[in-house]
Amino acid sequence: MPFAYYESLSPEQRRTYRMSDGVTALRVREPTALHPLVDEVREALATGERGPLERATTGLGKALCERLDVPSVRVEVLDVRPSSEEGELHGLYAWEPGRRPRLQVWMRTAKQARVVAFRTYLRTFLHELCHHLDFLLLELPHSFHTDGFFQRESSLFQQLVPGRGPRGRKAGPDGEPGR
Predict the structure, then answer these.
(1) What does the alpha-carbon distance between residue 149 and residue 130 come to, in Å, rounded to a whole number?
(2) Is the Cα torsion angle 65, 71, 74, 80 positive or negative in sign?
(3) pTM for this predicted structure
(4) H-helix or E-strand containing 78?
(5) Mapping DSSP to helix (H, G, I), strand (E, B) and coil, where does residue 143 land?
(6) Residue 150: left if φ>0, alpha if ψ -120 to 50, beta else—which one?
(7) pLDDT tens digit string along 125-177?
(8) Burial class of residue 76 (count of CB atoms within 10 Å of its CB; 0-12, 13-18, 19+)
(9) Range list of H helices, 95-146
(10) What are phi and psi of 163, to 5 degrees?
């Protein structure tokens, strides 16, 4: 069942939406080799210092892009999330013609400027990276938030942070939820 905004899309955008929705996982070559990079991100986030976190996140992003055979994205880690009456901005992906794609992720909450939880931070980073992958790996002309998009984000997360799958089920060795 498409999200409500599907009805407002053009026929070409609806085709893209359906294509996006049909891709539910991305397979990373040798994801266990990236676990030390994930640990670096976790450790850097725990320090609460932006510079080390940006370097660790950049390293993870570069390694993921290499394993998925796409050009890397420039990563910027910013401090306190911007907010408005609608909520807080967690991350942002931007790609302007002639420029290197840029992924921004914020490391602190808007109201109390607390460092966000590791899983939240990593999922936000992967969410923005999925927009990059929609354009460069899947070659989609638009990057929509579809069920497939969110499943791709989760598939990356499960490969990088094996353990508990959806609804607390233990994940199998391939990162997919066990039965």
Answers:
(1) 7
(2) negative
(3) 0.88
(4) strand 74-80
(5) coil
(6) alpha
(7) 999 999 999 999 999 999 999 999 999 999 999 999 987 555 444 444 434 44
(8) middle
(9) 118-136
(10) 150, -105
